[in-house]
Write a structure and sequence with these properties.
4 helices, Methane Monooxygenase Hydroxylase, Chain G, domain 1, elongated
Length: 120
């Protein structure tokens, strides 16, 4: 059935009419939830492409929670939502592998072993 078209009812039975009404209501709720997720993803994507790190950081948590809510409500399949979630943070600017990462906060294992009195 095309989007936006009313559900066609072949029989005028009470149960058939009720199911058709439920189907319309469920479709409306699903559409609202799907739109909420897609809008959140688009906002996050535009913030990332614009290079606005603070806006992207502020939008990341609400976007992930909107995706999680869509899973809970059955709007998105869990694998699809997890794929969306896994692609979001990877688009943020990350330090390159050759960046100046220092191990100054870490002690060498040999130093810590030699400091113990039982190894002297």
């Amino acid at each position: 059935m095309a989007q936006g078209q009313a559900t066609k009812v072949k029989k005028k039975k009470k149960s058939v009419l009720k199911r058709a009404a439920q189907s319309r209501q469920r479709a409306e709720v699903n559409r609202v939830n799907r739109t909420r997720v897609r809008t959140a993803i688009k906002r996050l994507r535009t913030a990332l492409t614009a290079g606005d790190a603070t806006a992207a950081a502020n939008l990341l948590h609400p976007t992930m929670s909107a995706i999680d809510q869509a899973i809970t409500k059955g709007v998105l399949h869990e694998n699809t939502a997890n794929r969306y979630k896994s692609r979001r943070p990877t688009t943020r600017s990350r330090p390159s592998p050759r960046s100046n990462f220092s191990f100054s906060g870490f002690r060498r294992a040999a130093d810590s072993v030699s400091r113990h009195s039982c190894f002297r």
